[in-house]
Amino acid sequence: MAKLVFALLCLNFFASVYCRDDTLTSGSGEAVVDAAINKIQSSCIFSNDKHFMKRIAAVNTNYGKDMKNNDGGIWKVKLHMLGTVKYYCRTFLRRYCNAISRVFNIDIGKLAYKDMDIPLKSSLIMRTYLRVYLINIPASKSSQAWLWSILISNKGASTFLTKNTIKPACFSPKLDLIFAIDASSSITGNDFGRKLKFLKAVVGGLNIGYDFVRVGVIRFASVADVSIALTSHSDLPSLEKKIDSISYTGGSTNTAAALNLAYTTFQDDRPDVPKVLIMITDGYSNSYYSTLIAANKLKSKNVTIFTLGFGHVRNYEMRSVASVPSCTHFFKMSRYAEIIAIVQQITRKACESPFIVDGTATDVFSRNNKLAPNGYTKVQRLIVHPSNNPKGKTTIRVNVVCGVVHVYTSSSYPKPNAALYDDKSSASEGVSAWIHSDPKRKLYVSVVSEIRPNSANPHCTNPHYNISVNPQNTHIEVVCKYNGVERKCTDDEIMELFKHLFDNTNHPDITNPCTNDNIVKNKMRFPHPNYKNMFIQCEITGRMEIVTCPASTNYNEQQSVCNPYVAPPSNGGEFNGPNPCTRNAMVGGNFYFIHPSNSAAFIQCTEQGIPLVEFCPTDTIWSQKANTCVANSVRSYNPCSQTSSVLFYSDPTNNTVYIQCDENNNAFVMPCPPSTVWSQAGQTCIRDVTPPSSKCDPNSCKAGEYCPFPGNKKAYYICDNRKLKKVDCADGLVWDQELLTCNFP
């Protein structure tokens, strides 16, 4: 029998744990940073930041622990950064700023400097500021350090390299991982060898074993074959030796065959274990249609798919194969050196992949989940699928030995944590954590565990936790604790503890909207008739609960969440022609349309499907192809082509401007921001600074220079304040002077 203990002095707190979002308050800490970054990443407004945003927060303010009021918040946004973002929100970053307003209900073009104390606002400004200069953020830590030193701080790059650390996420995870590697003729044998080294770098950070991480490898070209079976290796040395023996074949690119083979290779003997496929390819597949069918079949088996593309890959195919959201599951790299820097990111994402739980299942267990070492936390994620069970909710129980477990849940955020959740429950020895999910809604669950500080006791030989779904033996003894003494709760005390679940009569002035018709239609939240900062939450039984939004937020009826209030943007009024804001258009992400009679205006759709007329800045016109306003000056030099998907080109006579193509293949001159020049390789404007040099003068080196460390290939020098400072490469890597980064030997 489980024991449920309540401290009588905490009744009010128990009843108020609901809809916490510290990204919208003056919160701090690593959990707040992760929550804000996850919000931005999952929106797919920007490209993957490759841990740059988290590293900036760590270096600038120690995740907010060292920040001061009105000093730029967790990311320490400077006043000129805010001004830069607000300026370019009116020009070439307009579509990004409009997307932020649409997704987060925050008009960043109207934020004041004091708003930077709010983590989400500070992170949005910093990420948009980075987009001014970078379309794609480099993956290597050394490259990010150089960017930080010239874009964000006047301190040397060595400060960034030595001050920030991202803790590992893979502490004894349970995982079935399969790599699908392209061995077709579109690559060389040397490139194939680099892929194998990448595989070894990823598995080197995992706990290989039959009860922990199992690894398989599928090689594909004209045909696909299993090079390493999922259950064939229980230790890292033998697995690495087998990886080294995989040979290059050549041939066509039969990606569908590899995905179909993965479907049969993944086994069902560990239903409580996440299944992850990492597909690495360099070229187009033989058949996009067959590849898409095979990928969808694999996803139906609850497999998380990551795609890594190199060179001239078919982007939309890679995104279609990858799991949703594709912006966090698809990585595109122009050279193999970049793959080294994303090992940690890929490993972390693979380890945090959720295992899927059927809400109708009974007595599903995830047993003996090892706790992380002392001083670290471990995160395990679950997704509970709707059970559509009219008799009740899906129940999840977590118990722990020699540790503490906090369970965070959300019906809307895929990665709930201590800073962002709908509901929370905690477990310690003798006390289980209980979670109940709505049978009609998907539930995201994060299980965050840590070892007990005094776990050196003799009986703590195996610190672990267990998860059970819909356990059959759910008898609970309710015990009340007062001044440290446990006793049986009275009926009145139990009613007081759980009144928020049963109370349906103490709001006689409010008509209960939780009717059968609304519940059947999954309408479970309604605005409060009298207060904007409250809403009505329905139970499946038809009972209603009055919920108060977090401080400084109001309930947003369209999004069914609490959000900061933002006044609607100014516009030229409602468009009086045919309405392009159809449901199909907006579902497909199309919120902007060309104005039929005014080239200096465009039509913007509201969330309600209302077409509003917006005007471009002076001397610009609307481009439907670029989905933004562009300069109104057509050039005689025109690199735009109907056969190319490239929209931006360098100007052969002036590197402070670039050429942007519209939907009619006209060429327009666009200025770079002040003190920046156009980079065709990066497809963006970058700071006009001297690139890192490969020559270092020990007596008077220049900032940003890199050079080898004499006698040690596993280290290199970086110039900081005219002095050379030693930096060590990650384990298994050596310094590559040609690429100016650490590389595989």
Residue windows where pLDDT falls under 50 for at least 5 positions:
5-18, 500-506, 565-571, 689-694
Number of strand elements: 40
CATH architecture of the largest domain: 3-Layer(aba) Sandwich
Mean pLDDT over all positions = 77
Tally of discrete structural domains: 5
Helix coverage percent of residues? 10-25%
The CATH class assignment of the largest domain is: Alpha Beta
Tell me, briefly, the overall form: globular
Question: Biggest sheet: strands, sense, closure?
Answer: 6 strands, mixed
Strand pairing plus helix content: what structural class? alpha+beta
What fraction of residues sit in β-strands? 25-35%
* Count of alpha and pi helical runs: 19
Termini Cα gap: 57 Å
> What is the CATH homologous superfamily assignment of the largest domain?
von Willebrand factor, type A domain
Computed Rg: 28 Å
Main sheet: which strands, in order across?
A: 5-4-3-6-7-8
CATH topology of the largest domain: Rossmann fold
